[in-house]
Amino acid sequence: MMKTTLRFLCRWGYRVSWIVITLSVCVYIHTLWQYLGNYRIEDSVSKIGILERNAVQWENTKPNKAWLMIGIPTVCRRNKNYLNSTVTSLINNMQGVTGVTIVVCICDTRKACRENIKTNLTRMFLPHIQSGQITIIETPEDLYAQLTHLKRTFNDSETRVRWRSKQNLDYSFLMQYCANRSQYYLQLEDDVITVPKFVDKIKEYMHKSKYWTMLEFSSQGFIGKFFKSNNLEKLAGLLRTFYNEQPCDYLIFYFLKLMLQEKRFLRIPSLFQHRGYFSSMPDLVRNVTESYSHFPSFKKRFHGDNPEADIFTSLSPWMSFKPAFAYSTNDNEMFWSTTPRVGDHYTVVFKSPHKIARVVVLTGKTIRRADYLHDGTLEVGTSVKKISKKKISCSNLSVVGFFVQGNIDVNLLNSTQPFKCLKITITKDQITWLIIREIAVYTNTNKKKNTKISRRSI
């Protein structure tokens, strides 16, 4: 009996030992295979430079602090890809600039779309990704768990409410990621182009501006909005908290009030032009371009002599469309006011008296004839009276013309005395706003300059 038992244990112990050894070898090979596989994946990711980590890992990543981060949220559009041209425009127009990182945030919920965007970016911009100039991140899937049972506001359709609510969450995630990773942050969209040396122009405008929370380098939507990076967490929190209530370009102005920014800092001309025809919102086609920018907009037609002068007005400017822009001879500069009422005036006071040969004033938009002066007079004066430090009255006035369809062109060649000022006065309330697009003052008798233009050509 004892011999039988020992024989049985030896026979099966031998077999069990081989089984244990075989399983151990398999586990070892499997572990080694996983290690080599992870090594290959990590090596590939390091070469391509694409972050394939979750949100927590992204937040723990601490790159060298840049001067500026440019955030670009992107999704797949059904008919067109604008992202590559946007990134190309940015890179081409900041040659030689250092300390700027472009962060592309893939916000599409479809896995195939995300992979397609990463593949295209890698193919187009591999050297820039490898150098760290371009970083690619993705929104986590659980970010959109809140996009159910949304309440409708502003009488928007359910589709639009969901689209703009998702946009708020996307922007919030992108800003949270970029917060405190650089000194400043610039928000763009994935369908814009920019002007040459835009970074230098941003720095120049920033150094001239004081007590700001947000600078604007485009008048459209959420394009070209510039922030201090240490304020991004607050803004991200606001967008995330009120994502369903209002669109992002409405919420931003509540943020400015909370941060005690009293006025808008909008640089004109703008630095970024919207180029997208197919919106990121499904089935929406639009043709929105920047009206007042470096890009083709409008040109001053007459470029008068416009002697040096001070501008005084009772009209309230909208955003940064300053009163002096109407008298300026620079293209794309104009004065835009929100509150034209009877008795309001726009007065030009010359530094020294001048004999005036001709005055041309154009108002309203160049297209669709909107926001023009419905009723008004043009007067010239031979003296001025100082009422206060900021108020000067043009006196000894003579009416020289009346506005017709928003424009006026008067010839003053017969006047022998020099004039000290000219005054535009609104003579009737109007519901629409007012644009004074160009004021051209001629102080010589050049026949070409002093030939009156037809009403139709204005």
Characterization of the model:
The protein has 458 residues and is an alpha+beta fold. It folds into two domains: 55-274, Spore Coat Polysaccharide Biosynthesis Protein SpsA, Chain A (Alpha-Beta Complex); 309-442, Sandwich (Jelly Rolls). The chain has nine helices and 18 strands. The chain has helices spanning 2-48, 55-60, 83-92, 111-131, 158-178, 198-208, 232-241, 248-258, 324-327; strands at residues 66-74, 100-106, 134-138, 182-187, 192-194, 214-216, 225-228, 265-266, 272-274, 309-313, 335-337, 345-354, 358-363, 376-388, 391-402, 407-411, 419-426, 434-442. The strands form four sheets. It has a seven-stranded mixed β-sheet with strand order 3-2-1-4-7-6-8. A five-stranded antiparallel β-sheet has the order 10-12-17-14-15, with no helix packed on it. A four-stranded antiparallel β-sheet has the order 11-18-13-16. The longest helix has 47 residues, at 2-48. It is elongated, with a radius of gyration of 32 Å.
List the helices and strands and how they pair.
Layout (H helix, E strand, L loop, with lengths): L1 H47 L6 H6 L5 E9 L8 H10 L7 E7 L4 H21 L2 E5 L19 H21 L3 E6 L4 E3 L3 H11 L5 E3 L8 E4 L3 H10 L6 H11 L6 E2 L5 E3 L34 E5 L10 H4 L7 E3 L7 E10 L3 E6 L12 E13 L2 E12 L4 E5 L7 E8 L7 E9 L16
Parallel strand pairs: 1-2, 1-4, 2-3, 6-8
Antiparallel strand pairs: 4-7, 5-9, 6-7, 10-12, 11-18, 12-17, 13-16, 13-18, 14-15, 14-17
Helix pairs in contact: 5-7
User: Largest beta sheet: what is the strand line-up?
Assistant: 3-2-1-4-7-6-8
DSSP, total strands: 18
Q: What CATH first level of the largest domain would be assigned?
A: Alpha Beta
Cα-based radius of gyration, to the nearest Å? 32 Å
Q: Report the CATH topology name of the largest domain.
A: Spore Coat Polysaccharide Biosynthesis Protein SpsA, Chain A
SS strand fraction: 15-25%
